[in-house]
C-alpha cells in the first residue's frame, strides 16, 4: 500500500487491516491448510493502523471475532503476540 497515493481512501485502510485480521484468524484458529498471512498483508496492516482510529480497529476485530466464532480476548492475544 502506497501511503503517498492521492487515490488512497479510508476504505483502503480498513480493507488492509481487515485483511490482516482475517489472515491471522485463518492461519491461527481455523486450522486451514492454506496460509493467508503474507509479509505484504502484515506491512499494509501496520501502515493502516497508523491512520485508523482505535475505535475502528476495535470494531473490525470484534466483528470478525463474532463472524469466525473466536473469543475476542484470544483474538487480541494472537494479533498482538509479544515476541
What's the short story on this structure?
The chain contains 4 helices and no strands.
- The multimeric state of the shown protein is single chain
Radius of gyration: 13 Å
Secondary structure tally: strands: 0
Overall shape? globular
| N- to C-terminal distance | 25 Å
SS field, number of helical segments: 4
Mean pLDDT: 91
Explain how this protein is built.
There is one protein chain. The chain starts with 9 loop residues before the first helix and ends with a helix. It is built from four helices and no strands. It is mostly helical and 83 residues long. The chain is globular and about 40 Å long. The chain has one domain.
Task: Record the SSE blueprint.
Blueprint: H1 10-29, H2 39-49, H3 54-67, H4 72-79
Helix pairs in contact: 1-2, 1-3
Which structural traits does this protein have?
mainly alpha; 83 residues; globular
Amino acid at each position: 500500500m502506497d501511503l503517498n497515493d492521492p487515490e488512497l481512501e479510508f476504505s483502503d485502510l480498513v480493507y488492509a487491516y481487515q485483511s490482516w485480521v482475517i489472515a491471522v484468524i485463518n492461519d491461527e484458529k481455523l486450522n486451514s491448510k492454506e496460509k493467508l498471512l503474507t509479509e505484504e498483508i502484515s506491512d499494509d496492516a501496520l501502515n493502516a493502523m497508523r491512520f485508523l482510529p482505535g475505535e475502528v480497529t476495535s470494531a473490525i476485530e470484534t466483528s470478525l471475532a463474532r463472524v469466525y466464532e473466536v473469543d475476542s480476548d484470544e483474538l487480541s492475544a494472537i494479533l498482538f503476540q509479544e515476541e
